[in-house]
Amino acid sequence: MKVFLSWSGDRSRRVAETLKHWLPDVIQEIDPWVSSQDIAKGGRGIDEITHELATTDFGIICVTPENQASTWINFEAGSLAKEFETAHVAPFLIDMKIAELTGPLSKFQATVGDNRGDVRKLIGDLNSALAGRTVAEDLLERAFARSWPELESALQEAQRSSLPEGARHPIKRSEAEMLEEILLLVRKQEYRGTSLEGNVTQAEEKLSRSRRISEDEFILASFAKIGWQVKNSSWEKSEVSITARPSEGGSVFLSRDFIERMAKSLDRPVVVMDESENVLARSSASFP
Q1: What is the rounded distance in angstroms from the CA atom of residue 95 to the CA atom of residue 114?
Q2: Which of these, 107, 18, 94, 19, lies nearest to 63 by C-alpha position?
């Protein structure tokens, strides 16, 4: 199975080259390709890269804080996504957290490079993509455990490396951006399963239930993004009451901007309470 390794910048390249040699140690059926090592001297680079993009089976994008806005990285990710299901395009994060991933790359399921469990899941996905040539799970686990220290060492070395002068620092996603993205995703499913044929009243009721479910999902996902757990949400009178608490190790602070953005997204005032019904935060009383 061909695996295309995309990179941009020195730190990203070093990790991509490590993955080229490391992946076949875990799954021998994998044939990784990386431009820094697999284009012959005198070769026509862009032609070879375009050919590999068109014939690959799985893409791993090596992403660092300084390269995630790279035009080349995003071009290769887009090209890979056009070739097959987006489940087969995996950003591999180096010295980054998932919440720091922005732009087009944030739409793919990312792997945190220094998280052993996350990388193990990526290996499992690669194994599943072999389609009939999969490695037995016990053999895969032993191969991964044996090889992991090598990759972990390379990632640690990359993280210790200084950023190039003038390199872009991580772009942190604002709470507003996260709220808007989550609402967009759940609203896309709002009409799924809702038929407008037949009785209009029944269709409207079904659509109303669908909207309510999507907005409840939006609340759950939004609070989870900031490290909070929603216990209950109720739509009483003209406001939304949300019972929530910080998850273990999460922030105990609810920002004013977060509450106001949620109220705007839900188109009604929001009040957040703890499990003893003490009010923790409330959106502006002047909300229309």
Answers
A1: 8
A2: 94
Q: What order of strands is seen across the sheet that includes strand 31-34?
A: 31-34, 2-6, 58-63, 89-93, 111-112
249-to-101, 201, 228 alpha-carbon distances in Å: 21, 46, 10
157 contacts: CB under 8 Å, gap ≥ 6? 14
Is there a contact between 73 and 63 (Cβ–Cβ < 8 Å)? yes
How far is Cα 195 from Cα 203, in angstroms, rounded to an integer? 6
How many alpha carbons fall within 13 Å on the CB side of residue 163? Answer: 12
Q: Which tokens in the block code for residue 203? A: 């269709």
What 3-state DSSP class applies to 5?
strand
Top pLDDT among 253 and 169 is at: 253
Bridge partners, 230 (sequence order) = 244
Contacts of 246 (CB under 8 A, 6+ apart): 227, 228, 229, 252
The pTM assigned to this predicted structure is 0.55
pLDDT digit string (tens) for 241-262? 999 988 876 666 788 888 888 8
Residue 247 Cα to chain centre, angstroms:
20
**95 CB-near residues (< 8 Å, 6+ apart):** 11, 64, 65, 158, 159
Phi and psi (nearest 5°) for 231?
-90, -35
Question: Please, are residues 176 and 257 in contact by the beta-carbon 8 Å criterion?
Answer: yes
What confidence score (pLDDT) does residue 215 get? 73
Q: CA geometry: angle at 84 spanning 78 and 85, to 5°? A: 95
Highest mean pLDDT among 115-124, 154-163, 184-193, 204-213: 115-124
Place of tokens 């009604």: 268
Sign of torsion over alpha carbons 250, 252, 258, 264: positive
**In this structure, what DSSP letter does residue 208 have?**
H
